[in-house]
């Protein structure tokens, strides 16, 4: 029930309105029951999450993930290209949520999205200069900004 309440609030926050809900799918065997995720982005009709665009589905997944984190936080979280279908506006919302939760959770975000990279504290790049040999490069963006400021 708490995850459901969190999801409803998180959905509205991420979509700047609208309505999101999690409903139980009943089954004779309790272990075979499931959930349906319903979403109505602002200005649209209520639909199953399957009918949403890729960006809307990903943002709905972010709402669900962080709804769970509000109930049971984790010390770290790995997100692999979750932001790939986001436009700039949704990327900004994603970064805002990451920053909000970063006090309790360390996020490792695998991304090609430059906007997400710009919102990061530290970047790690992995390149392969020669066959079978990977090189790791790190950049602390906060330190870089401080060294450039007068």
Strand content: 25-35%
Shape call: elongated
At the fold tier of CATH, the topology name is Rossmann fold
CATH superfamily: P-loop containing nucleotide triphosphate hydrolases
- CATH top level is Alpha Beta
Distance between the termini: 51 Å
**CATH second-level architecture:** 3-Layer(aba) Sandwich
Q: Can you give the mean pLDDT?
A: 91
Strand elements, count? 7
Helix and strand string, N-terminal first?
Answer: HEEEHEHEHEEH
Q: Residue ranges: pLDDT <50 for 5 or more in a row? A: none
Helix content: 25-40%
Strand order of the largest sheet: 1-2-3
Structural class: alpha+beta
Report on the architecture of this protein:
The radius of gyration is 18 Å and the shape is elongated. It has a single domain (2-119), classed as P-loop containing nucleotide triphosphate hydrolases (Rossmann fold, 3-Layer(aba) Sandwich), CATH 3.40.50.300. The model has no long low-confidence stretch (mean pLDDT 91). Strands 1-2-3 form a three-stranded antiparallel sheet. Strand 4, helix 3 and strand 5 form a beta-alpha-beta unit. It has helices at 2-15, 54-71, 88-101, 114-118, 141-148; strands spanning 19-25, 34-40, 47-48, 76-80, 106-110, 122-130, 133-140. The chain has five helices and seven strands, in the order αβββαβαβαββα. The protein is α+β, with helices and mostly antiparallel strands and 150 residues long. The longest helix has 18 residues, at 54-71. Helix 2 (54-71) packs parallel to helix 3 (88-101). The N and C termini lie far apart (51 Å).
